[in-house]
Design brief:
The chain is of the alpha/beta class. The chain has helices at residues 64-74, 150-162, 165-170, 194-208, 225-233, 247-256; strands spanning 2-4, 19-27, 32-40, 43-49, 52-59, 85-91, 97-102, 136-138, 148-149, 174-179, 185-191, 216-219, 238-241, 259-265, 268-273, 278-279. It is built from 6 helices and 16 strands. The chain has an 8-stranded mixed sheet, with helices on both faces. It starts with a strand and ends with a strand. Mean pLDDT is 83; it is low at 1-15 and 117-123.
Length: 280
């Protein structure tokens, strides 16, 4: 299966909306109910400079002009006081867009010479791609016969929290914990970046030759596209997050056969994709 991001359309809403309604299953210790839940939209914006692809950033549609101006200012590409000349080249219904900034060569800053040194590259699995066509993932849909009980998720989070030593000390780190089918921790890593913590777990288990033993990962923050894409590459069938999930994370989890759960706190959880992995 090969999926190009620009071919994924967002359901039943206009591009100008910053959130979309998705069907989900909200669970707690007493009941399960289908709900319509509002998720923040995540979509790619390709930024061209003088008709040449510069970078792709993930963002929520709207305010693209302000986003581009602020990004180019922060990266010392354009710090002029006059308005940027911006043109929309492509605009897809799913929120994916291409915009071109025309900047006279004599006012281009030094940051443009250091192409793709953006700060976002250290924390975003998709930022840094230069064209929308580069953003695709190929591979077979994940299929797992394993089932997970909601009670087990609560127990796994307790194990995870007990081992988050950096967070207990600082309160400022994210964590990813990988579990096997027997709910044992295979690896737990902490980092200031959510994506870095997951990368560390995958790297650790590659070194241990245990990557194929992952049945589930728990993450301490929200889930956006790049977390789902990293899980897909590692063939991780279940992602459980303590916080929210973006629209694109849900879209891709559905495409890739990944069970995606958000707002997993105490005895509550919201299942956004492939709920058949969960015993309700």
């Amino acid at each position: 299966m090969s999926v190009a991001l620009k071919n994924l359309t967002l359901p039943n809403k206009l591009l100008s909306m910053r959130s979309l309604e998705y069907e989900a299953i909200k669970t707690n210790s007493l009941s399960n109910a289908k709900i319509q839940d509002d998720l923040v939209v995540e979509a790619a914006l390709q930024i061209n400079i003088n008709d040449q692809p510069y970078t792709v950033v993930m963002r929520t549609p709207n305010d693209d002009e302000a986003l581009i101006r602020g990004l180019l200012f922060a990266e010392d590409i354009y710090k002029g006081i006059t308005d940027l000349v911006l043109e929309t080249i492509e605009e897809h219904e799913n929120g994916f867009s291409v915009m071109n900034a025309t900047i006279p060569l004599e006012v281009l800053g030094q940051g443009y010479l250091n192409k793709r040194t953006l700060l976002s590259v250290s924390s975003c699995g998709i930022c840094g791609k230069q064209q929308l066509k580069d953003i695709s993932i190929s591979g077979k849909r994940i299929a797992t016969p394993s089932m997970l009980k909601l009670d087990a998720i609560r127990q796994m989070y307790q194990q995870m929290k007990a081992q988050q030593s950096l967070f207990l000390t600082t309160g400022g780190s994210h964590a990813t914990a990988a579990f096997d089918s027997n709910k044992n921790i295979l690896s737990l890593k902490e980092d200031i970046g959510r994506h870095n913590a997951l990368d560390k777990v995958v790297g650790d288990l590659l070194n241990q030759h245990k990557l194929d033993q992952i049945a589930c990962i728990l993450v301490s923050g929200r889930v956006s596209y790049e977390i789902v894409s990293k899980a897909f590459f590692a063939k991780i069938p279940i992602i459980v997050a303590v916080s929210a999930c973006s629209s694109l994370a849900v879209d891709y989890a559905k495409e890739f056969g990944i069970c995606l759960i958000g707002f997993s706190r105490d005895d509550k959880a919201t299942i956004y994709a492939n709920p058949h992995y969960i015993e309700l």
